[in-house]
């Protein structure tokens, strides 16, 4: 049996929550390996809606172990709040079913404020972040001045670590003409939340190695999408972490040998939140209609998503950079009723035809999509649970996507409900 890594194959918001939850039924362990509480997963189970930001999707299922890996930047107050909210919905969260890496970097108020200052500043620094401190926390991690979860277990050592961190942040505050942060206030911010989060702390690398050796099935759950990867995405309009499948190993401590089947999640069209290039974006009534039918608003922020046609060139690229073995195609039902559907199959750049998305920011802004038109379908795909339930043209659309991206569609999702899913290949069976 293979362990499974689930990654977004576009710019995030592809419907990973439902797919991860659906797969977690077969998993013993579900691991979050990067990102922070800027990424939202919505799960609909038996008519109950669960909105998760930090907690792995497996947490709503009894008998599953959920793990937050070292690759995640952790806002301890956000974690405590999310645990409290889900507990209020009847979900039991204890050390038995949740562990958090002891070496996970913490997000503090200094990070949130710096994030907001940059986003509200000059146009040159506006990336379209959620202002939740994710990027600045990753900066402190790389700058070797971060405070980590394990530091909360030894409060006597915190003042020295806080002073080291504030040497950097207060210099920035002075540059903005703002009051400096108080070391005492930061200490209180951390000391007050320590009892709420420390019960979940563990050496996650060792825990996962033990689980793997015991033959347990591990499901790795990514946040955002591969096109927001800090190296392989639409830089600088990206997130602050690696979102490709290789990060599952680094962000959990399990090692590349423990990572098996890579399942990429892609919508049957394309969406994007925030700033940055989007070659197949639609600015007309068709784009509006897709957004309305697909309820395209951010789970965490409520921000309206930009909508466009499926871009096969981009997804083919993420198939390569994440080593995707199969695709879970979601929201096919949103395209029901369109007379004609377009697929982006390449680009024009300065008069030349290219079959990849260039890395240069300037070139990314200049590319123009080349489209292939496909006849739409009048029948409904909503709630379909077998190929026989699908209109012939819908099947033709799926098959054409497979050809263009160079990967098979392993799973087809036809509604937010977990059971409205057509399975061609079980990722856990390699």
Structure description:
- The strands form five sheets. The chain has a ten-stranded mixed β-sheet, sandwiched between helices.
- The termini are close together.
- The chain has helices at residues 16-24, 76-88, 109-119, 134-142, 158-175, 183-197, 204-213, 247-250, 285-293, 312-321, 361-366, 392-405, and strands at residues 4-8, 29-32, 41-45, 48-52, 65-68, 73-74, 98-101, 105-106, 201-202, 218-221, 261-267, 270-272, 306-308, 310-311, 326-330, 340-349, 352-354, 368-375, 409-413, 421-423.
- It has 430 residues and is α/β, with parallel strands linked by helices.
- The longest helix is centred in the middle third of the chain and has 18 residues, at 158-175.
- It is globular.
- It folds into three domains: 4-102 and 200-261, Adenylosuccinate Synthetase, Chain A, domain 1 (3-Layer(aba) Sandwich), CATH 3.40.440; 105-197, Adenylosuccinate Synthetase, subunit A, domain 2 (Orthogonal Bundle); 267-429, Adenylosuccinate Synthetase, Chain A, domain 3 (Alpha-Beta Complex), CATH 3.90.170.
- 30% of the residues lie in helices and 20% in strands.
- α2 runs parallel beside α6 (183-197), α3 packs across α4 (134-142) and α5 (158-175) packs across α6 (183-197).
- It contains twelve helices and 20 strands.
- Its EC number is 6.3.4.4.
- InterPro entries: Adenylosuccin_syn_GTP-bd, Adenylosuccin_syn_Lys_AS, Adenylosuccinate_synth_dom1, Adenylosuccinate_synth_dom2, Adenylosuccinate_synth_dom3, Adenylosuccinate_synthetase, P-loop_NTPase.
- It is found in: Cytoplasm.
- Pathway: Purine metabolism; AMP biosynthesis via de novo pathway; AMP from IMP: step 1/2.
- Substrate binds at residues 299-305.
């Amino acid at each position: 049996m293979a362990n499974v890594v689930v990654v977004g194959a576009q710019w995030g918001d592809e419907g990973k929550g439902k797919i991860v939850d659906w797969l977690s039924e077969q998993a013993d362990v579900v691991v979050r390996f990067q990102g922070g509480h800027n990424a939202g997963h919505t799960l609909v189970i038996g008519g109950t809606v669960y909105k998760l930001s930090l907690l792995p999707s497996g947490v709503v299922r009894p008998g599953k172990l959920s793990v937050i890996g070292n690759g995640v930047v952790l806002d301890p107050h956000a974690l405590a709040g999310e645990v409290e909210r889900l507990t209020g919905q009847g979900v039991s969260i204890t050390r038995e079913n949740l562990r958090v890496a002891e070496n996970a970097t913490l997000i503090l108020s200094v990070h949130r404020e710096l994030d907001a200052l940059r986003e509200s500043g000059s146009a040159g620094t506006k990336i379209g972040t959620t202002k939740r401190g994710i990027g600045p926390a990753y900066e402190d991690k790389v700058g070797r001045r971060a405070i980590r979860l394990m530091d909360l277990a030894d409060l006597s050592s915190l003042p020295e670590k806080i002073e080291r961190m504030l040497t950097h942040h207060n210099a920035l505050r002075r540059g903005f003409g703002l009051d400096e942060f108080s070391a005492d206030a930061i200490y209180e911010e951390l000391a007050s939340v320590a009892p709420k989060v420390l019960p979940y702390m563990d050496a996650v690398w060792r825990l996962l190695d033990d689980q793997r050796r015991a033959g347990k099935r591990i499901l790795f759950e990514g946040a955002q999408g591969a096109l927001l990867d800090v190296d392989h995405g639409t830089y600088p309009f990206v997130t602050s972490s690696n979102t490709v499948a290789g990060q599952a190993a680094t962000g959990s401590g399990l090692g590349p040998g423990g990572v098996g089947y890579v399942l990429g999640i892609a919508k049957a069209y394309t969406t994007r939140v925030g700033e940055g290039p989007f070659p197949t974006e639609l600015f007309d009534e068709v784009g509006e209609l897709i957004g309305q039918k697909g309820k395209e608003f951010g789970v965490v922020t409520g921000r309206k998503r930009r909508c466009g046609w499926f871009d096969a060139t981009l997804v083919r690229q993420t198939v390569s950079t994440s080593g995707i073995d199969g695709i879970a195609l979601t929201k096919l039902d949103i395209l029901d009723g369109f007379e004609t559907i377009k697929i982006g199959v390449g680009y024009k750049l300065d008069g030349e035809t290219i079959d990849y998305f260039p890395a240069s920011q300037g070139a990314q802004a200049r590319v123009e999509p080349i489209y292939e038109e496909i006849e739409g379908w009048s029948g409904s795909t909503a709630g379909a649970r077998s190929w026989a339930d699908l209109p012939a043209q819908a099947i033709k659309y799926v098959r054409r996507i497979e050809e263009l991206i160079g990967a098979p569609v392993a799973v087809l999702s036809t509604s937010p409900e977990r059971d409205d899913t057509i399975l061609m290949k079980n990722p856990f069976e390699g």
